[in-house]
Design brief:
Layout: E1 8-16, E2 26-35, E3 48-51, H1 62-67, H2 69-75, H3 83-98, E4 110-113, H4 116-126, H5 128-133, E5 138-140, H6 141-152, H7 162-168, H8 182-198
Parallel strand pairs: 1-4, 4-5
Antiparallel strand pairs: 1-2, 2-3
Helix pairs in contact: 6-8, 7-8
């Protein structure tokens, strides 16, 4: 009987060339596999983190030109990998870490991250092997963020605060604090969900309202 992998999360993030998803191409792909308790399935040194090659003539949004200069330079270097090879490498990585994909989509691992719909959209376009291995559901930490903020107001999780992300990440946080790096964003998303899980016993009722 195939192994049920629906209790595994594929923490996924990308950086891309345009803020318009219809025009965007990938610049970076990162993925970390955890169980439902947010513990890595593979050791930190095996996190998937790949820079995608782009042409010198590739059009970039002004925001990308300004804020992702170092990443764009890497994408135009020998380090970068063609996007079709990134898809193949990611597929091989997941085969090695999780084994064969269950034929039943309900038993496949769940794609997770912050504002995951954008990354899912680009994965459908450029990384079909990843989508083929994933559950039909996704886990979007942004949903927790919205509910949390609307229920209790401001809260102390700040992903740009390295001390905060390291405190709430369940394991080795093996990335520097760079909010425009896909690998950092993956780890920060895991830390943020862990923050919500650790504080889920907070009473959200309005002041003075009894249970």
């Amino acid at each position: 009987m195939p192994t049920d992998l629906s209790n595994k999360y594929l923490w996924f993030d990308t950086e891309f060339t345009s803020l318009s998803l219809d025009r965007a191409s990938l610049l970076q792909v990162a993925l970390v596999v955890t169980d439902h308790e947010l513990r890595r399935v593979a050791p930190p040194e095996r996190d998937f983190n790949c820079v995608v090659s782009i042409d010198r003539e590739q059009g970039l949004d002004p925001w990308v030109e300004e804020n992702l200069k170092a990443l764009v330079a890497r994408c135009r270097s020998e380090e970068a990998v063609p996007v079709k090879d990134v898809d193949a490498r990611l597929d091989a990585y997941l085969e090695n870490v999780l084994g064969s994909s269950p034929p039943d989509v309900k038993m496949r691992p769940i794609l997770a991250g912050n504002s995951i719909h954008g990354d899912w959209y680009l994965a459908r376009k450029y990384l079909p092997s990843l989508i083929a291995r994933a559950h039909y559901r996704v886990l979007d930490v942004s949903s927790w963020k919205v509910v949390w903020k609307n229920a209790i107001g401001d809260f102390p999780f700040d992903k740009e605060n390295e001390e905060c992300t390291r405190k709430y990440f369940p394991g080795e946080f093996n990335s520097s604090c760079d909010v425009h790096d896909a690998h950092f964003d993956v780890l920060a998303s895991i830390a943020e969900l862990n923050f919500y899980m650790q504080h889920s016993s907070i009473d959200w009722r309005p002041e003075g309202e009894s249970a």
